[in-house]
Design goal:
Layout (H helix, E strand, L loop, with lengths): L12 E4 L5 E7 L2 E6 L10 E7 L2 E7 L17 E6 L8 E17 L7 E8 L4 E6 L2
Antiparallel strand pairs: 1-6, 2-5, 3-4, 5-8, 6-7, 7-8, 7-9
C-alpha cells in the first residue's frame, strides 16, 4: 500500500452515539451467512452468501471521571444510532465513515495496579451498515 493511501487512526471518533470514556480502540466485524449449495455430484464445494449480519462493534475506552459507564439495558427495543469516523486528516481530506444502529449488549470494567481504569463495550449491530467517505472540515 502506498504511503499516501494509508489512514492514521488519529482522532478516530464517534460522531453520533454516546460512549462514555476516551475511546482507545474500535473494531467492527460484519459478515454474511455462508450457504453450502454443493450437490452430491459436485467435485468441489459451492457456496452462496445469505443474509448480512452487521456483527458487533468492540470498543475499548479509558474511563472518564466526568461520565458514568453506560450499562446494557434488557428488554430495549429502540436501537441507538452510531456513526464512527475513522481518522481525521487535514481539512478537505476524505475519511471512511461507518453508520449503524445497535444495542450495547456488554460492558466490562477493569482496574489494575499502575494502570488506568478501562471499560470495554460490545454493541450488537441491528440492520445494515452505511459506509461513506466524508470530507473533513
Amino acid at each position: 500500500m502506498a504511503a499516501g493511501t494509508s489512514i492514521s487512526s488519529f482522532q478516530s471518533r464517534f460522531t453520533t452515539g454516546t460512549i462514555a470514556g476516551t475511546v482507545t480502540n474500535i473494531g467492527i466485524s460484519p459478515s454474511v451467512a455462508e450457504i453450502d449449495v454443493t450437490g452430491l455430484s459436485d467435485t468441489d464445494k459451492q457456496f452462496v452468501t445469505g443474509t448480512f449480519d452487521g456483527g458487533t462493534v468492540d470498543i475499548s475506552c479509558n474511563v472518564d471521571l466526568s461520565t458514568a459507564v453506560v450499562q446494557p439495558t434488557s428488554g430495549n427495543s429502540t436501537t441507538i444510532p452510531f456513526v464512527v469516523q475513522f481518522g481525521k486528516g487535514a481539512t478537505g481530506v476524505f475519511v471512511p465513515t461507518w453508520g449503524f444502529s445497535g444495542y450495547i449488549v456488554k460492558t466490562s470494567v477493569s482496574a489494575e495496579v499502575d494502570k488506568q481504569v478501562t471499560v470495554n463495550y460490545s454493541i450488537q449491530i441491528s440492520g445494515g451498515i452505511t459506509v461513506a467517505s466524508v470530507q473533513t472540515a
